Amino acid sequence: MGETLTEHENQLDGQDQKQGPDAGGALYRRVAADLREAITTGAYGEAGRLPAEGALAERYGVSRGTVRQALAVLRADGLVTSRRGTRRVVLGNARVQSFSELLSFTHWARSMGEEPGGQLESLIRRPADAAEREQLRLDPGAEVYVTLRLRTLSGTPVMVERTIYPPHVGVLVAKLPPDVVSHTEHLREHGILFTDADHTIDVVAANGEDAKLLGCRRGAPLLRERRRTTDPTGRPVEWSQDRYLPGMVAFSVHNSLATSALSRHARESD
Amino acid sequence: MGETLTEHENQLDGQDQKQGPDAGGALYRRVAADLREAITTGAYGEAGRLPAEGALAERYGVSRGTVRQALAVLRADGLVTSRRGTRRVVLGNARVQSFSELLSFTHWARSMGEEPGGQLESLIRRPADAAEREQLRLDPGAEVYVTLRLRTLSGTPVMVERTIYPPHVGVLVAKLPPDVVSHTEHLREHGILFTDADHTIDVVAANGEDAKLLGCRRGAPLLRERRRTTDPTGRPVEWSQDRYLPGMVAFSVHNSLATSALSRHARESD
DNA sequence: GAGTGGTCTAGACCACACG
DNA sequence: GTGTGGTCTAGACCACTCT
Q1: Can you list the positions of beta strands (E) in chain A?
Q2: Residue in chain A nearest B102 by alpha carbon
Q3: Which residue among A91, B97, B238, B255 sits deepest, i.e. has the most Cβ atoms within 10 Å of its Cβ?
């Protein structure tokens, strides 16, 4: 018939799609995943149109609300547009990393097929200064754990990472062997969860330490990413400052009238 | 009183809150705006908890679904967390610019109380190369309009902007007087809408032209933002490359397990 | 006018956090 | 166990787009 069906038949395999997150996850996530695959496979063409919400609801055997929830995910990822009156339009095959790939250098490197490395240069414990207490929401007199690591991609130096941990996270980090590649993964196993992060991206000049570790000139430009991460309770778990050699990395963001989490700031705040 | 109410009483003023976008906007947007103000005012404390969804629904006289829609907005902005089982927690007073403030240098500058300036250096029309046809989704043989502008903040050079427009937008830009400060605003008046954008941020060295315009050394590091913008139909309307003097600007993004539009890429793609 | 997405409602059950 | 957010449903009306 005239349907726009491709390989993607109706229903979702397995599970008896009841409520609640099943093995694979919520229903709307499975619908979203299926649609994402169909889109990136080119099932709807380059700038093609998606079927109507009602049609999708029928195809997947779910309510329209669930379909809309799935589409909201794709909307935020920049995969499709949406506006009243017309079918949704395919925007492009955005890749968008998972949150963990973004937070973890290790996870990110592996997803690219590169071998991540981490060389712990130093780990010290000292009283937090005012800025650190502010960022990590610590009481006066609290101490922080400060790590300095050189990160490599298949042996090549790429980034210098300076991370400041609050005490409850720092004690765990301090116990890790110095050759552990992924701190993030180990922390997760100890119940430290990373769920939200604020990133600020700009350019700085390499200081003597950066230059020595990265093998660049002192004063050479580096791409800097500062990141404050919190756990699900809103408690800060790290405040990190990563400095990348130019040309090794770039950051991408998608935003829209519907969802905008990107902003531009004047000057430096610190 | 034991209530967590502050100034923010119940109900929303004006309008008889029916369906559909009224004067001020959708109901959930007004709820979101009210909650945002309450949060940034500190009504719930630094790391305080929000009332339960049901309580908010009752207070505002709306359904729980509407409250959840409002909270989803604040969630995406990084203002509050959310997880099953516990009240939402206030994360911080994120500022997050509106989408238009982000796209329009002019709008952004004004929102900071600075005087934006734009000096059109050149505007030419020429055949699109392969990369441009790809980005703007043009047919072989199509032409593009290329502008070069020096952007200033209260008289100080800040950024060099190179924008490539597809024909249907370019013809409008070409008709603008060279001293028009905001191209974006004029295009909007002519029915060209900007709704979605993909940004890539990295570092590049200033070329001769950059150096001359910005008054920096040739080879000096610049913060580069490349941006591809589309209209609601998914049609590309501009492909721009902005180069900022370091220290004048920084980009911020919030992301989380729930919503992630940020990604990190290896090397340069072009 | 027909079709489509945007918004809103009311009710239901589940999974998880916490006391 | 109780409360809370997460997910899902079914139905409704509206605003907008397009033909």
Answers
A1: 116-127, 143-153, 156-165, 196-205, 221-230, 236-244, 249-256, 262-266
A2: A263
A3: B238
Statement to judge: residues A82 and A38 lie in one domain: yes
Residues A108 and A239 in one domain: yes
Distances (CA, A) of A257 to B106, B149, B248: 17, 25, 25
Residues B39 and B145 in one domain: no
Are the beta carbons of A232 and B204 separated by less than 8 Å?
no
Q: Same domain, yes or no, for A189 and A66?
A: no
Q: Are residues B109 and B71 in the same domain?
A: no
The string of DSSP codes covering B206-258 is: --HHHHHHHT--TT-EEEEEEEEEE-TTS-EEEEEEEEEPTTSEEEEEEEESS
A145 and A38 housed in the same domain: no
Q: List residues bridging with B149 in a β-sheet.
A: B120, B161
Looking at the structure, tell me whether residues A137 and A250 fall in a common domain: yes
**Could you tell me how many residues make up chain B?**
270
Per-residue pLDDT tens digits for B31-77: 999 999 999 888 998 788 999 999 999 999 999 999 999 999 999 88
Looking at the structure, tell me whether residues B10 and B114 fall in a common domain. no
The pTM of this model reads: 0.84
**Domain extent for B52:** 3-90
- Tens-place pLDDT, residues A159-218: 999 999 999 999 999 988 877 888 888 888 888 889 999 899 999 999 999 999 999 999
| pLDDT, tens digit, 9 for 90 and up, residues B79-130 | 999 999 999 999 877 777 778 778 888 888 888 888 998 889 999 999 999 9
Contacts of A59 by beta carbon, 8 Å cutoff, 6+ apart: A5, A10, A11, A51
Q: Flag whether residue B43 sits within 8 Å of chain A, measured between CB atoms.
A: no
